[in-house]
Design goal:
Oligomer: homodimer
Order of helices and strands of chain A: EHEEEHEHEHEEHEHHEHEHEEHEH
Low-confidence stretches of chain A: none
Structural class of chain A: alpha/beta
Strand order of the largest sheet of chain A: 3-2-1-4-5-6-14
Mean pLDDT of chain A: 97
């Protein structure tokens, strides 16, 4: 009996969920819901209906888990609670500071609707969160470090694009190799923002724009760039599209801790991701969480969860016996 | 209300549990049980009783979770089921091939005694198992690689010590850097045993022993050394004790997978451990699992579990709210 998956929103994330759900032996993609005219949305799967999101409520009995593929800024805070009242839902809400508030809203809606919701699935929050929690539980005496990149930051790219005279831009976040090495040495360095990451910007100017002024605007932008060593390259739109339209990303979670009567033994736990496609990896996590959500719902759990509440075995399509025999 | 911890067996593991349990803010070390004369066992904690294991049953109401610190070859297959009938128990059973059988025996005993048992806690099995399961769930299309070392293999050191003419020996398992790099490149190489690890032996000879004969014996030993590139160094007992009595270990779990319509996007997930003290890191995991066992028991779960069945949040002494606010 397959888990029937629905997708709300068909951008990079929705498409990634479609690919991952179709590949899963225990899942079936039931429908894709869109705010656009369904006829205008071309999905990969010829056999899956594209439906207006206005009709979503009619699908309550035909979908086991709905994966909400909206943005964290304005979509998910509204959508996830709304759909959690009708379905088991999964989202990738990634505004770390607002997770407690989002959790509370989704929890109330999911409990009222007698559903399970799993929020903030992906890699950070998501796999990186798991690594932080495991490493902290095992090495309570220690220090956490998270590095991101090399990869495109959508928020920083957008910030550059809002500067007058900028036609297009991509911004890469890059971990500083010396900082990574210092952390791996077990020295537990106190690292400033500037010491951890550099920012590299590829910018296409509007005709007649003042490059020096734009560069100054970028490098002094508070929060986004002022606290970092930032490099700005001005390139043609053609070069931007050719060389900088990839969606690669990744990063490192490291915990450096100590054990022993006098804390004389040092231990380094390191987790890293090197991803060709940030959205497809994120959606691979979302789909695994959908499997877990269905299992938790079937055993009577209700309300909002995160990946920290999911027994790892629930994410796998393999049985407990198989996991113990082959992966334990 | 502290979790009351008991320890059965006081060697390197028992001592590691003692250190970790005493450091945990939510735990209390209740007693250490030994097969030896309790008066002959000096533990670190002056305030904790050392008790004969024959009296263990009298402690049923004074211990929440018993951590069984025996060896996997002969101790744990007998001890863990025995004590699971009296207590919630944790062990570090690490004979991968015999886990299904051990699980079944412990499960029956724990269910009969209405307790929770968590077996095979540590780093492999343990943290490495978690990484394999998560990485497989998220990247179902891919390949797993596990490398161990650099670190001392007890089994291989023992095998050398059984050769006539050998007085003492230590054997290091070392991952081959070129193999690690090939895996990290995403090439999904098929690696032979010889290509993955080398073995380096430090051997102290009995007086008059034939070094060339011993070296030949080591290098051709089936299963242990014949399939590896092995280096043998003959050193003095003093040098062995001075330079080779550490208990450092570690290793790497890597999954190399692909997503996309045509599997065109490659992803590398890598987890690594660099441990100054193999037994102290192992026992840090055991103690975190003891916390989870108590929670699972309190919510009514019974029987045998592994770390794959434990919601990650249960391993932490922090609340769900704290974890979501700070580590998610």
């Amino acid at each position: 009996m397959s888990i029937k998956i629905g997708i709300i929103g068909y951008g990079n994330l929705g498409r990634g969920v479609e690919i991952a759900a179709k590949a899963a032996p225990d899942m079936e993609l039931a429908a894709v819901f869109t705010r656009r005219d369904p006829k205008s949305v071309a999905i990969l799967s010829a056999d899956v209906p594209v439906v207006s999101v206005d009709e979503v409520e009619q699908w309550k009995d035909r979908i086991d888990v709905m994966i909400v593929c909206g943005g964290s800024a304005t979509d998910l805070p509204v959508q996830t609670p709304k759909y959690a009242s009708m379905f088991n839902v999964i989202d990738s809400f990634d505004t770390h500071a607002r997770i407690p508030e989002h959790f509370a809203n989704v929890d109330a809606a999911a409990k009222a609707g007698e559903h399970v919701a799993v929020i903030s699935c992906g890699w950070d929050p998501g796999m990186f969160s798991l690594m932080r929690v495991y490493a902290n539980a095992v090495l309570p005496d220690g220090q956490d470090y998270t590095f991101w990149g090399k990869g495109v930051s959508q928020g920083h790219s957008d910030a550059i694009r809002r500067i007058p005279g900028v036609k297009n831009a991509k911004q890469y976040t890059i971990p500083v190799p010396a900082a990574l090495e210092a952390v791996r040495s077990g020295a537990n360095p106190a690292l400033t923002t500037r010491q951890k990451h550099t920012r590299e910007c590829f910018v296409v100017l509007e005709e007649g724009a003042d490059a020096a002024w734009v560069e100054q605007k970028i490098k002094t932008m508070p929060n986004y760039f002022a606290d970092y060593d930032t490099t700005v390259h001005f390139i043609s739109e053609e070069e931007l599209l050719t060389n900088h339209s990839g969606m690669a990303h990744g990063g490192f979670v490291i915990r450096s801790g100590a054990t022993g009567v006098n804390k004389e033994h040092k231990h380094i736990i390191e987790y890293s991701l090197k991803l060709d496609s940030n959205p497809e990896f994120t959606t691979s996590v979302l789909v695994a969480c959908a499997r877990a959500a269905q299992r938790m719902w079937e055993e009577g759990q209700r309300g909002c969860k995160t990946i920290l509440d999911i027994p790892p075995a629930y994410l796998s399509e393999k049985s407990g016996e198989e996991l113990r025999a082959h992966l334990l």
